[in-house]
Amino acid sequence: MTIALRAALLLGALLLAGASAAAMPPAEVRQCLTQRLHGQQSAAQKCFAALTRAATPYLRAEGAWGLADYDTANTEFRAAVARSDGSALYRTRWGELLHERFNDGDAADLFKEALQREPKDAQAMLGLARVSADGFDNEAVNWAQRALAVDPQLAAAHELLANLAMEDNQPELAAKEADRALALDAQALDAMAIHAVIEILADRSADEWWSRIHSINPSYGPGYALAASHLVLNRRYQDGVAMYRKALQLSPDLWSARSELGINLMRLGQDEEARQQLTQCYQNGYRNDATVNSLRLLDTLKDFATFSDATTILKFSHKESELLYPYFHDVLTQAIEAYQTKYHMQLDGPVQVEVYPDHEDFAVRTLGMPGLGALGVTFGQVVAMDSPSGRKPGEFHWASTLRHEMSHVFILKATRHRVPRWFTEGLAVHEETEASPEWGDSITPDIIVALRKHLLLPVADLDRGFIHPTYENQVLVSYFEGGRICDYIQSHWGQQKLLDLVQQFAIPRSTPEAIRTVLGMEPEAFDKQFQAWVYQDTAALVAGFDDWHKQLEALVTASRAKHYEEVLAHADAVIALYPDYVYDGNAYQQLAEAAQAQGKAPVAISALSGYVQHRGRDPAALEQLAKLQQDAGDKPGAIATLQKINLIDPVFDTDSHRHLGDLLMDTRDFGAARREFGAVLALHPLDKAQANYDLARACHAAGDAKCAMDAVLAALEIAPDFRPAQKLLLELNGQ
Ligand SMILES: [Zn+2]
User: Fold this and answer.
1) Which of 512, 530, 668, 679 lies in disulfide reach of 657, CB 3.0 to 4.6 Å?
2) How far is the CA of 224 from the centre of ligand 1 (A)?
């Protein structure tokens, strides 16, 4: 959900308020607001202007707010509140102004202060509901319901609930709430807009609802902005952009919608117009975080290095473009080929992948998007993701993330962006481990705790777990559940059923309809069967969890005290209880350390191999494993291990690239060796002469005389007396 939508919902909200007279603005204010809601702009302007000449600061505040003079409105509200400490209304209205002007923290405080003065102030409760809703906080539903308990006539609260239900992909509930709002107020425009959204998302005509809105207010842009925000939330970015344009045709100064238009144009890679739209917002005083940060990001992007070919456009920060490009290009083209084959489809033109070394820049890309701090995000054929350098070493597997995002690119296209969130996420998680069993994420303790409490959601409600989580980490658990659902369908009915589901969602069919058609069962029956399987599959893990916890603690204590015999004796038992635990203080790395201290290299190798197999990602541990493998004469093993580091953290250090380059030279894989020595150079090593010489000999061996000559000359320019380089130069000249 986006800021634009909330601002849209605010406009008519007050007018729909019912009986709680204590918190209602006086008649002269309501008159102006009604004129505005009905699209009588010039009458409304006059009305608000008259208020600015009123005797009391509160009325002047309402007048200034109506005229979009927010600073004056803010000052007048402050004066009004100072004069009337007991007024809940002034605080609630001031809070609503601040909410509209991007200050949810102070807005929430004002609503709470209003409730201290008037515990039954339904408008203040609704204000808190809106603030929560902006943050995709599940408290929104609770506050809206509390407001309704106090004031059952509060149509705006039903509108908000309708909107929240729609965010959860629950159109039936949304329609019910919208109807409740309309029963209380036949002019509830946003309730009509929600009905329009329901029709649009089901690919039916919404004309009837738009006409009803127009008959009340022919220039009601916020209704289209609300629809646009739902299209964006459903990843229909192109359609969302078109809908924001409609909103702006009717209401050119609806800055929240213009800002969202700019942000979504940026998501689609249309940076030029994005900049224009956002600049216009900025110059007109609409400077919320999303607008300001997006403008800043557009500036950053100008300095990115771009690499293009027929199917890919890759953008990196200049400082790491040379290093990352070859690896990213490989993984990206492999993903495109795999999905093209699987789905028998081609994309429309190249995929653009943007790789951000600064997580804050990437975060701007996900603004207004629900869920966890993601690693990657897909907008049609544009993917934005963290660079491995933007996270702690080993924190994520960038190749797996890219493979995940590329699944979205294909599924969005295959379903014309109609796919429900749970399925596109579940399938993307499933695809990570399809690419390699060592990709994807291992089951975390949080998930085990959720499994123990049987917190999995029915498949038909799973979207809710992504959008409005009700407990910490529910988003993570929902990714896990979505992934396991796809695993289960594939293992029980075959891959074709997953493809059939894709086809169903393209029609579009709802989740229950799609399950019925493809699997021939009711969604409830599927839940029963799937959950029995997943709880059974994880039963031992869940049962042993407390025991594992205790034993791991004991192991850590023994390890810290360097009681290696004890670690060697007990680590395997700890691992057996929870083999996927590869996170902080895991038993694999402790076992490896103890084994090495005791000179038991084969034990260390087997411990670290187990760690990697279960998706352990600490690059230093992988480097250590490669060294042990090489010392044991297992060169292919060492090469494979070092290549895995490149898919996790190619930025980690120069040594692993050099080590891998040397091994690849030994095995006469000169092309691959050349890439590794190139990576060493791109990381600006201390010994640049050696690095250039290494690259020269790889190029020479690979038969690229020009590259060899350039590199050997570069080496000699740094170190003219470097003997091996001199020898190579002679050899090259002799050719
Ligand atoms: Zn995803």
Assistant:
1) 679
2) 27
423 alpha carbon to ligand 1 midpoint, in Å? 10
Query: What spacing in Å lies between the alpha carbon of 404 and ligand 1's midpoint?
Result: 6
Asked if 170 and 32 touch (Cβ cutoff 8 Å), the reply is no
Residue entry with tokens 């919608």: 257
Q: What is the pLDDT of residues 140-190, one digit of tens each?
A: 999 999 999 999 999 999 999 999 999 988 999 999 999 999 999 999 999
User: Ligand 1 centroid vs 494 CA: distance in angstroms?
Assistant: 23
Q: What contacts 221, CB < 8 A, 6 or more positions away?
A: 8, 246, 247, 248, 249, 250, 251, 254, 257
The Å distance, Cα 661 to ligand 1 centre, comes to: 34
| pLDDT score at 23 | 65
Distance between Cα 476 and ligand 1 center (Å): 11
pLDDT in tens, 615-650: 999 999 999 999 999 999 999 999 999 999 999 999
pLDDT of 2 above 70: no
Ligand 1 centroid vs 434 CA: distance in angstroms? 15
Residue 572 C-alpha to ligand 1 middle, in angstroms?
34
φ/ψ of 352, rounded to 5, equals -105, 125
CB within 8 Å of 101: residues ≥ 6 apart: 70, 74
Question: 650: CA distance to ligand 1 center in Å?
Answer: 23
The answer to whether 624 and 608 have CB atoms below 8 angstroms apart is yes
User: pLDDT tens for residues 585-617?
Assistant: 999 999 999 999 999 999 999 999 999 999 999
Distance 479 CA to ligand 1 centre (A): 8
User: From residue 56, how far is each of 21, 31, 63, 346, 453 by CA, in Å?
Assistant: 20, 17, 11, 65, 56
582 within 8 A of 602, measured Cβ to Cβ: no
Entry field: residues in the chain: 735
538 alpha carbon – ligand 1 mean position (Å)? 24
pTM: 0.87
Of 219-223, 297-301, 474-478, 517-521, the poorest mean pLDDT is in 297-301
Summarize the confidence of residues 545-560 as an average pLDDT: 97
Rounded to the nearest angstrom, the distance between the alpha carbon of 384 and the centre of ligand 1 is: 11
Q: Is the per-residue pLDDT at 10 higher than 60?
A: no
Q: How far is the CA of 491 from the centre of ligand 1 (A)?
A: 22
Q: Measured in angstroms, how far is the CA atom of residue 449 from the centroid of ligand 1?
A: 23
**Residue closest to 311 by CA, chosen among 349, 285, 360:** 349
- Is the CB of residue 15 less than 8 Å from the CB of residue 29? no
